[in-house]
Amino acid sequence: MRPDTLPRLMQASMAARYLGFSESKFRGLGIPHKRHGGNVLWDRLDLDAYADALPYDAAQEETTCAADKAFGS
Q1: Structural domain span for residue 42
Q2: Beta bridge pairs of residue 30
Q3: Would you state the pLDDT for residue 3?
Q4: Domain count within the chain
Q5: d(CA 9, CA 44)
Q6: 3-state SS class at 47
Q7: 3-class DSSP state for residue 4?
Q8: What is the mean pLDDT of each run of 10 residues along the chain (73 residues)?
């Protein structure tokens, strides 16, 4: 999905694909949603905020730190 073609509000199946989760896993994440008529919708900005708040993998951080030490960054 290209960001410039995504709707601002998404149903669960599209929101799950956007984050890279199965729909059942996505529904269990507890990300805030909105209602419009009979539809439950997730705001793309809330999905981005959720992804931004996820911690980085500790092993990845250790590798990055080792590389920084090796190359003096």
Answers
A1: 3-71
A2: none
A3: 60
A4: 1
A5: 6
A6: helix
A7: helix
A8: 82 98 98 97 98 88 65 67
